[in-house]
Design a protein that fits this description.
about 25% strand; five-stranded antiparallel β-sheet; about 25% helix; alpha+beta; 4 helices
């Protein structure tokens, strides 16, 4: 039986626009470690000196070759400002290098509703990919903000990424 005195919760009323983002790297070869190391240097700076709006940053392990991070941001505006600054703005260069030897993903959850995700070079379904239909991040679905806000309708997506119907048609 659980002791009710050890039960705890949190009051999030001061954080109405809270955003949680989970990031993951799944290594497929040793080369992926080199690119991950470059990204890790920036992540270390972040964990030592939080950028404005970052409330919490913690590392996670999903498996021996699958590492991740969970971050809580005050709001989407602060997260977006961070993504447009260093070190994040140059990470995409390293993610391209990384995708040859590893996969990268992130999933963003907004307290006011809305969830978005992006997967690069992942082999096999991860997270939301396990049950949600695939949609290419193009056009009105390109930015994280647009994906959180819905990014247009399903009719906006190209036919190659539309989910199949029960009879196998798009």
């Amino acid at each position: 039986m659980h002791d009710a005195r050890n039960r705890k919760s949190v009051d999030l009323s001061d954080f109405p626009d809270l955003v949680m983002i989970m990031l993951g790297f799944k290594l497929r070869s040793w080369r992926g470690l080199l690119a991950m190391r470059r990204i890790g240097i920036g992540l270390k700076r972040i964990s030592d000196n939080y950028p404005e709006g970052l409330l919490s940053h913690e590392g996670m392990m999903f498996g021996l070759t699958h590492l991740g991070f969970r971050q809580y941001w005050k709001d989407l505006d602060h997260l977006e400002r961070f993504t447009r600054s260093e070190p994040h703005s140059t990470w995409w260069t390293h993610v391209r290098e990384l995708s040859a030897a590893a996969g990268f993903w992130h999933e963003t959850y907004h307290a006011n509703g809305g969830v978005e995700a992006l997967y690069v070079g992942m082999q096999g379904a991860t997270g939301l990919q396990r049950f949600a239909p695939e949609r290419r991040p193009v056009g009105p679905f390109m930015s994280a903000r647009a994906r959180i806000q819905g990014g247009g309708t399903a009719n906006d997506q190209d036919s190659a990424s539309a989910p199949l119907t029960k009879d196998g048609r798009r």
